[in-house]
Specification:
The chain is of the alpha+beta class and 643 residues long. It is built from 12 helices and 35 strands. Strand 20 and strand 21 form a beta hairpin.
Length: 643
Amino acid sequence: MILFFKGMKSRSPKKTKSRLDSKKSPSKTQTKVKKDPLLPIRPLPILFPLPPFSNRKRISFFLFFNILFFFQCSSLQEKPKEVYHNNVVTTETEILSKIDGLQNSGIQSLAYMYMLGDGVVHAGNHGGDEKIQVPRFKVGSITKLFTGIALLQLQDKGKLKLDDEVSKYLPEIKKMQSRGKNFPEITLRDILTHQSGLPSDLASGFFLSPEANDNEILESFHSLPKHLTDMERNEPGKTHSYSNFGFGLLGVVIERVSGLGIEEYFQKEIFKKAGMKHSTLLEFHEGSDLVPGYYGFFWKTKTKPQKIRDLTAGSLSSTGEDMGLFMKALFQSKKGKGLLSKESFAEFHRIQKGPSSNFQMKLGLPVLLQEKIGGGKTVWISGHSGSLPPYFADLVYDPETEIVSFLAGNTTGFATAEIQPTNNEILNTVFEYKSGNSLEPLPLPERKEQNRLDGYFGLYVSPFGIHELKEGNPPKLEIMGFDFDLVEKENRFGVNLSLFFGLIPIRDKKLESLRLEFENWDQDKIFNLYSPNMVKGSLGFAHKFQPNQNLPEESYFTRYSTKDPHSLIPQLGLEKDKRGFLLLSINYSLGGLSYSTTLPCQMESATNLRILGYGRNLGERVEIKKFAGKPVLVYSGIEFIGD
């Protein structure tokens, strides 16, 4: 579902920079200025917020709908088959055309890099301020790959082992409260693979003042272990739960083991070895400038880039050229001459053992791994995306053929949602150039028996909020307040979008492949949503719950606010569901935009609530109390005062 508005003008793109070698290439072609482009409204990726609307269901629905499109496709139109095998001119022309289309979609400034498997780095920029000679972009959670590489380097040197208990290097973690008894200790590998049981975020202090200098940022980063005393952990190895907080702690481990400050370590052991001259975890770096950020859907507003405490979780800024040099050095590790030993390079990309609750989810250390088919053979595509609004970046590569594509933009809005699907399209083009084969998603696995819904009707909770499976013909599943028809397909249930949307034509066959599977996990009933292009478990899973009617006193049902002007979570809300159970609304503020999620919770004691479910921001504790006669909620280290 794409709307078009005519007559809006985008900024003229900057001349594309040439290849980094002396060979003649289409990369030197000047991009033509388009005076009156159409600016399509594109869906936002999962990491991006939506603008505030008065209707919360409307926000939630569009978030979910955009996520489906984000994972499924970037266009509803079928494209003719094109062949790029061994034709470098046609291949690069197609790649640059896709990059031009991105810049013209409304992104103010864009960095790109690709490698065709011959070790040559192709990089450049579009748009932006011409006064900035060397623009850096925040790459968000792609930083986590560098953190994993640093730990593997220290293992190569014999200074630690990934299966060591974290308490060996962070004794402060022993002071954490444990939700259950006899939980095993957390290992470094547990954190790298997002199954540590640590909280997803420590929201208190996550965003710093836009005016904070590098010394203040480092001071805040070093304070992370001090917060462990007041925090609670869940069982490690139980389920995947993405944790920025955990990766921040890994940065402290790197400092303590190496004896170097975190910026010094990254500069000396990664950036310098790879030849990266314009990359940093901090804000200032001589010889380059961080590009300004923008937010907005039609009219762009300049915003100050947000500074974060958890440096090794998502603070890296870099250039397209530097990212290419990084990948080149990483590939050289296969010969024992790069950033890692040959053994650690293989371990970085090896599928790690994960919780059974996520089924097909595959993680390296911590690179994300996706299984594809190319020429009838399995191809494991590696990569990671990163979102630190107003920036979004995506990196995908094949470690076998050494092909790569990287894109980064600086504008929060519909346009930035095109980055990841476009990046995948570029990699598919490069794969065909390199191998002569198309890169295809895996077919849906066969099922011999139809899913049965007996015993599954009821309420569920997932990272997207509350769902209700309702009886009927056909049965319906409530997602974000809207009912989707479930239809039987291939011995499982499918979400029939065409039935739900009615008049909206669904031409892309990929959208017809969305599937739901209901199953048991640890004696609990759950369901997963997936497709060939969306790995089962990648969106987490929905866990059935039975609400109780225990409620706090009436004065607690109100809105709550924090006094921190830079808070990741500025507001909470506590209310009663129409069915009589507790709901906690969490409002997030990211890069000038905001969104809200509503989750069920239950009273655990007279002073504590528990958010239900498993996964990111689920299963966490909320303290309730009174101060000066006013209700107070304490969540993720933040004290919220009731209205």
